[in-house]
Amino acid sequence: MFRQISTLIFCSLLLWVSNTTFAAIEALHFRSNAEEQTYHELTQELRCPQCQNNNIADSNALVATDMRAKVLELLQQGKTKTEIVDYMVARYGNFVTYDPPVTAGTIILWLAPLALLLIGVMMSLRRRKALLPTEQTTAELTAEQQTRLQQLLEKGKEQ
């Protein structure tokens, strides 16, 4: 009985481990070593839109697979590295590059938190200033209020 169970567990583990052997391997054909080098550089430089922190060379996402195929297709059409990056940016946006250009949108993204922080500090200072008593507020007491204040102070001393 124990032998049958251990054999079943062993076979299950072998099947589970051998499952990785069925992974797909991309077979790419390049016309020259320079084309292959350019392909590898581009796939390292372009970011996967789905994974967000992986380049398309390391990503297994479907969109990354499509992007790698498009890079190879464009290279085989004779496009330059810059033209391929421009195509990918036009299709997927500036996010696909790890070094996006400075635009009005990126400036806003960088400056908005700083502006909000400054507004918050200014509002806090204004609020604190409004809560602090000033000489004008103490001097504006009427004679009746001053008499009442004096009575309360004397009553507090007696206790």
Automatic annotation (TrEMBL):
<feature type="transmembrane region" description="Helical">
    <location>
        <begin position="107"/>
        <end position="125"/>
    </location>
</feature>
<keyword id="KW-0732">Signal</keyword>
<feature type="signal peptide">
    <location>
        <begin position="1"/>
        <end position="23"/>
    </location>
</feature>
<keyword id="KW-0408">Iron</keyword>
<keyword id="KW-1133">Transmembrane helix</keyword>
<comment type="function">
    <text>Possible subunit of a heme lyase.</text>
</comment>
<dbReference type="Pfam" id="PF03918">
    <property type="entry name" value="CcmH"/>
</dbReference>
<dbReference type="GO" id="GO:0042597">
    <property type="term" value="C:periplasmic space"/>
</dbReference>
<dbReference type="InterPro" id="IPR038297">
    <property type="entry name" value="CcmH/CycL/NrfF/Ccl2_sf"/>
</dbReference>
<keyword id="KW-0201">Cytochrome c-type biogenesis</keyword>
<keyword id="KW-0479">Metal-binding</keyword>
<keyword id="KW-0812">Transmembrane</keyword>
<comment type="similarity">
    <text>Belongs to the CcmH/CycL/Ccl2/NrfF family.</text>
</comment>
<dbReference type="InterPro" id="IPR005616">
    <property type="entry name" value="CcmH/CycL/Ccl2/NrfF_N"/>
</dbReference>
<dbReference type="GO" id="GO:0005886">
    <property type="term" value="C:plasma membrane"/>
</dbReference>
<keyword id="KW-0349">Heme</keyword>
<feature type="domain" description="CcmH/CycL/Ccl2/NrfF N-terminal">
    <location>
        <begin position="13"/>
        <end position="153"/>
    </location>
</feature>
<dbReference type="GO" id="GO:0046872">
    <property type="term" value="F:metal ion binding"/>
</dbReference>
<dbReference type="InterPro" id="IPR051263">
    <property type="entry name" value="C-type_cytochrome_biogenesis"/>
</dbReference>
<keyword id="KW-0472">Membrane</keyword>
<dbReference type="GO" id="GO:0017004">
    <property type="term" value="P:cytochrome complex assembly"/>
</dbReference>
<keyword id="KW-0574">Periplasm</keyword>
<protein>
    <recommendedName>
        <fullName>Cytochrome c-type biogenesis protein</fullName>
    </recommendedName>
</protein>
